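Hi R.,

Here's the chain you asked about this morning:
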Amino acid sequence: MIAGTALVVLAGIWAGLSFLAIALPAAAGPAMAFGLVCLALALADALILLSTPLPRCERLAPPVMSLGRTVEIRLLLHKVHPRIKSIRLFDAVPEQVRAPNLPLRIIVKRKDYKFGELEARYELMPIRRGNLRFGYVHLRFGSILGLWQRAFHSGQPFEAKVFPAFLKDERSALALVAGQTAPDSVRAVRRRGQGMEFLQLRDFRDGDILKLVDWKATSRMRKLIVKELQEEQNQEIIFLLDTGYRMFASEGGAASEGGAASEGRAGDDIPHFDRALESLLYLAQVALKQGDAVGVMTFGPTERWIAPVKGRSSMNLLLARLYDLEARPEPASPAAALERLAGRLKRRSLIIVMSNLREEDSESLGQLLPMLAKNHLVLTLWIRENVVQSLLHPPFRSLADALTAAAARLYLDERERLQALWKKKGIHVLDTSPQTLTASLVNTYWELKKSGVL
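And here is the predicted structure, written out as tokens:
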């Protein structure tokens, strides 16, 4: 038990009377009587509080949450005794969430509960990916006279998973497959009739091109019949994801562990790794719905291999294996990872290298990538660092500013030179900013599918 505010006040008054009795002996009697009354009240109030049955708390929370999405948590209180007039609750939430409404205070009114049961609710928002571990629910209620507080904990520890918020709406991925307007500046492209794989025969319509006319079927049916095509299916998309220092940074500085929420913070502060992971999952959703197989290999501090899987239900497998990934400021070798990946692939695949490649990688990848491009389609990702671009613009207030701008210009020129060299060797290059990464990656996927180079 904990002494309440009222008991502290009474103790202060009794102490004051005691000091007064030292100066005025006549006040000794009233001071002693006041102290005895306070002691009797405190003892009686404590005995009543100790005899009050403790309520039981039950937490109701979803086992899976999304990064940056608000979630409502319900706390059910069972067997609340009528002597309890108010309860303070604090849920031991993990540090990876924000819960501004805690602690909660519930004023118990008879009309608010039935059979001794109450319900409290609060909202929280996960700000980092990974596993969440909730502790006990801590409760406190006061005695009848308010002289004491009784604190205890109830409920059971609870674990939840925080997945990347890669898709705000399931219809967004469906829109990409159907060729409808999609978010994040993804261009709408009509799919049917422009691909490389035969779908069906149908009657000629206005706008159809003559090269799609099936003349044998036309002569047999005595009316114009055209072939309807679609993008090829059953192709392999392999993501090679870097978990090392190249992806650790963000436009606002070093990244935080576990991935930070994209809502409620400046967009430029989202780590490059989180941008890449969300783009990976977004494109994987689209590719799986398109009928392609998707595989993932990570390299660097965390190494994982997910063999190519097909079907819409495979998205759950990808999420379960990738949701807790994080980048670390440790070395990672794209060349070594590509060599290991080449040994795993049994058929032609689209290999998407998701690492912020730099000039330092030119020597190790200069010969390896062209060799891979003979049997596979290789797409390299270059994240355009906005902070480097900003260094090129005046004002330059000192010689150090001018030298920094010159170094930034040299860095970008070398980057462009290396990209041009790789393009000549048959390597596809995607140079984009972190904010447009998802849209650019999905558009590039559609363009490669439409061109038939895969």
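One quick note: The CA atoms of residues 8 and 221 lie 99 Å apart.

Cheers,
M.
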